[in-house]
Structure formats: structure tokens, C-alpha cells
Amino acid sequence: MTNATSTIGRRGLMLVMSSPSGAGKTTITRALLQRDAGITMSISATTRAPRPGEVDGKDYFFVPVEKFQGWVRDGQFLEHAKVFDNYYGTPKGPVEDVLRQGRDVLFDIDWQGTQQVRDTARADLVSVFVLPPSVAELERRLHTRAQDSAEVVAKRMAKAGDEMSHWPEYDYIIVNDDLERSIASVQAILTAERLKRERQVGMHDFVSRLRGME
Ligand code: 5GP
């Protein structure tokens, strides 16, 4: 078997995953990153305080509001939004670097950010919305996470309905009632989306060579 196909250039895609918090999205994205070497996580900037165990530069870039606003003014974000009481944004530079290398980028952003990415880069966007199997399960997951205060959990539950109303704006919907199946679903989406003709920018030359035209 030859590995000729590995030389076919490919255009990187942006895989956006959104969900109400507690639907299990973070667990799915972590597993995906471990199992797929071709995708890189986009690290967002946020003005929220780190949770116990969160590392600056790994989970988020934790920045003061003034710095965040400066980055907004300088046009350094691909998208940004206020979620709950804090600001979140995706720094543009690292995303562009990864895409240029023909690699894919994974985003954990909310529906507001997804709309902005859709407006600026529809062709490169693949969006997935993750739903919990039930409200009871969503609440249970938020409580067992145990990193947030009861007040924060209540606030997130109250906002979950609003967030979930945006599911029709996404390309794919996953109801996360079985973690392994959900991970496999995202992997299947990624596999199929990578094979899309318009992303295989090196295919023209490859087929020309197959046909003996070069
Ligand atoms: P958390 O505070 O639980 O880490 O994240 C809260 C929400 O903010 C999640 O829905 C997450 O998807 C969203 N979020 C995280 N980073 C970004 C970002 O860079 N942009 C946008 N628009 N939303 C984000």
C-alpha cells in the first residue's frame, strides 16, 4: 500500500461545539483531542476567574477586563461574546496558524460566537450542538461537577433553556446519553467533513497525476 494519499493537501476546518453547560461537551472534546492527532483545541481568553485546577494558558487565558477590551479594540478576536457575567473570546492568530498548516481547530464556544464564525467563515465551519438527555440529568451533572457554587449552578440551569433554543442553527445535533457513542459520533462527523471535496484542495493535482497528465 502506498501512502500517496497523505500527500494530498487539505484545507483545515473549524469544528465548533456548543451546549448548555453540564451537557458533557467538555468530556467529549477532551476525549476527541486525545484520540485524534489532527485537531488542535483553540484556547479562549476569558475575564472569569479560574476554577480550581484550571491552568492559565491551557484551559483559558485568564485576563482582566481592560486587557480583554483592548484585544477587542485591536481586532484580535475571531469572535467574542458575553456569557453569563463574563467575557469570552477566541484569539485569531493561533487559529489562522493551525488552519494554514492544514490542521483542524476545535472550539468550545457558545451560540453567539458560533454565529460570528458562521458570518465570517461559513465554508470552514462545522458546528455541533450537544444536548443533555433530560433536564434532571443536566442538573445532576452541574451539581456533581462541584466546582461552582449553588448560586452559579442555579444561574446556569436558568440559562440552559435559552441556550438550547439555538440548536436549529447547528449542522449536527448530539443527544449525549452515552458518552462513548457521543465521542464516536463526533469522530464520524470529523471523518466525513474532512473528506468533503471542497476541503481536499490538493485533489486536482493528485487526480491529474493518476491520469498521467503530469
Ligand atoms: P465556562 O465558564 O463554563 O468555561 O464556559 C461558559 C460558556 O462560555 C460555555 O458555553 C463555553 O462554550 C463558552 N465559551 C468559552 N469560551 C468561549 C469563547 O471564546 N467564545 C464564546 N463565544 N464562548 C465561549
Description:
This protein is an alpha/beta fold. It has a domain at about 10-40 and about 105-210: Rossmann fold, CATH 3.40.50.300. Helices cover about 40% and strands about 20% of the residues. The strands form two sheets. The protein has a five-stranded parallel β-sheet with strand order 2-7-1-8-9, sandwiched between helices. Strands 4-3-6-5 form a four-stranded mixed β-sheet. Strand 5 and strand 6 form a beta hairpin. Helix 1 (about 25-35) crosses helix 7 and helix 5 (about 135-145) runs antiparallel to helix 6 (about 150-165). The protein is globular and about 65 Å long. The protein binds guanosine-5'-monophosphate (5GP).
Read across the widest sheet, the strand sequence of neighbours is 2-7-1-8-9
Protein structure class = alpha/beta
Return the average pLDDT rounded to an integer: 92
Q: What are the bound molecules?
A: guanosine-5'-monophosphate
| Tally of strands | 9
Cα separation of the termini: 22 Å
Produce a short descriptive summary.
The chain is α/β, with parallel strands linked by helices and 214 residues long. It is built from eight helices and nine strands.
Keywords:
8 helices; binds guanosine-5'-monophosphate; 5-stranded parallel β-sheet; alpha/beta; Rossmann fold; 214 residues
